[in-house]
């Protein structure tokens, strides 16, 4: 599954266009490397998303094309959520 679609389906990011934009802006890393929106994800990949000053790090547990809103959090586990240092 593509990175931008996973971010949307898992509800980490609310809209696919937004997930594509933040990926294009180099604010998403997969396994420690800056990732393009079309990167194919695998179970076990670690995704790091920067939202302003907040950094969310999650591990992919499951890939699914469609999930109900209440089940979206089953697709990943949160490893860490932290505040970014001022630059």
Automatic annotation (TrEMBL):
Limits of the RNA-binding S4 domain: 1-65
One Gene Ontology molecular-function label: tRNA binding
Pfam families: S4
Assigned keywords, A-Z: Protein biosynthesis, RNA-binding, rRNA-binding, Stress response, tRNA-binding
Superkingdom: Bacteria
Keyword match Aminoacyl-tRNA synthetase: no
GO BP of this protein: rescue of stalled ribosome
CDD domains, sorted: S4 (cd00165)
Subunit and interaction comment: Associates with stalled 50S ribosomal subunits. Binds to RqcH, 23S rRNA and the P-site tRNA. Does not require RqcH for association with 50S subunits.
Function, as annotated: Key component of the ribosome quality control system (RQC), a ribosome-associated complex that mediates the extraction of incompletely synthesized nascent chains from stalled ribosomes and their subsequent degradation. RqcH recruits Ala-charged tRNA, and with RqcP directs the elongation of stalled nascent chains on 50S ribosomal subunits, leading to non-templated C-terminal alanine extensions (Ala tail). The Ala tail promotes nascent chain degradation. RqcP is associated with the translocation-like movement of the peptidyl-tRNA from the A-site into the P-site.
Entry similarity comment: Belongs to the RqcP family.
Protein name: RQC P-site tRNA stabilizing factor
Species of origin: Sharpea azabuensis
């Amino acid at each position: 599954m593509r990175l931008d679609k996973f971010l949307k389906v898992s509800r980490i990011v609310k809209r696919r266009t937004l997930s594509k934009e933040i990926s294009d802006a180099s604010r998403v890393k997969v396994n420690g490397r800056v990732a393009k929106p079309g990167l194919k994800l695998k179970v076990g990949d670690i995704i790091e998303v920067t939202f302003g000053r907040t950094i969310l790090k999650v591990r992919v547990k499951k890939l699914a094309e469609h999930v109900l809103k209440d089940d979206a959090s089953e697709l990943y586990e949160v490893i860490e959520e932290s505040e970014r240092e001022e630059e």
